[in-house]
Amino acid sequence: MTNLKMPSMKHLLQQINKYAPHAFLVLGALGFLDASYLSILHYNGIGAQCFLVEGCDQVLGSPYATIAGIPTALFGVLYYAAIFILAFLYFENRSTRLFSFVAYGTAVGFLASLGLLYLQAFVLHAFCFYCLVSVLISTLLFSLGMFVIYYKGRASFQMPNT
Q1: Averaged in consecutive runs of 10 residues, what is the pLDDT profile of the chain (162 residues)?
Q2: Which of 14, 31, 75, 122 is the most buried (most CB within 10 A)?
Q3: Which domains does the chain have, with CATH numbers?
Q4: In this structure, are residues 99 and 21 in contact, taking their beta carbons and an 8 Å threshold?
């Protein structure tokens, strides 16, 4: 019988730490694509095809879909572009301050996503698939960001060098 050895917590932390910058980069790119798609639809006056849920047109046509005439999705484009660019810059200069800034910055997107999710659930009573994808991405970014912030001062956790 084979003895399966579970990885230690230190090893798990090191693995998450090693791939955290890559995850910021990938999630930032995915969020950028999602928000860009909604922005393009808005400016072209095209309705979104909803998947798994119904209500995209109701959500995207609501007064909450724009702020001063600017689609909220465009703010998402800017947020996710910033996450992506800052994560990319981290790979260029390996600045731990920059990496921490990205981690702290994820709170902005997460709080905005929670607010928009609240509007969908309790005000509009309708959900947009693409908005929910953005909520998921911002939640993953925030969770990873808080992990990085919490563990960066631990002896078993070093900022990524690779």
Answers
A1: 67 79 97 98 92 92 96 98 96 88 95 98 97 98 92 57 50
A2: 31
A3: 20-151 (1.20.1440.130)
A4: yes
